[in-house]
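During data preparation, a discrete fold description was generated, and the record follows.
___
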Amino acid sequence: AEVSTQSTEAVVSTQSTGVPLLIVDTKEEMNEAIQLMGICREYILGLQMELARKELPRRTVQDQVRICELAAYFTHCNLQPMHLMLTLRTAVSLFYKMKNFKTAASFARRLIDLGPKPDIATQMRKILAACEKNPTDEHKLQYDQHNPFVLCAKSFTPIYRGKALERCPLCSVNYIPEYKGQICTICKVAEVGKECIGLRICPNQFR
């Protein structure tokens, strides 16, 4: 599974770095290219977190907490529904095992709302019912699902609304301020926080 994740990230990354080399003629084509860049950004960020999660040790409670945090953050990447369902299933399983039943229930509800296959929906409803009997979280995590946030692409930590951040001028991924001046870990091209004109692939952008 890890090799597959690495291979997928490599393919998506290649597509992401190819977008700045395009030359398009219309506003519609430009918007499609920008949308593609955004899709690639979300998948690369998510897959990098998944690789980091799989490489973490599992010896201590804090190790397990961090594993759960990364799984939770992955569910907030803007993925296709079928892929989002996979991240939610992982999060439900990990949080349930950690006895964070309240948060596990929230992931189960989100998954059910996406309309999974009947067997998965049945499984999630059973887990949800079990969680609702004891709607508590045993461990405190750096994760507040009710407070809007974006993810730092380097530290893999949430940047909650109103907090300072820096962005990549090319792929628009977010970073905490301490990473300003470093090369973006997503597009691997631009400098984080650099003030510049950004992506320019259409003659209309220069008029």
Q: What stands out?
A: The helical segments are 2-18, 27-55, 61-74, 81-97, 101-113, 118-132. The first helix runs from residue 2 to 18. The chain has a mean pLDDT of 88.
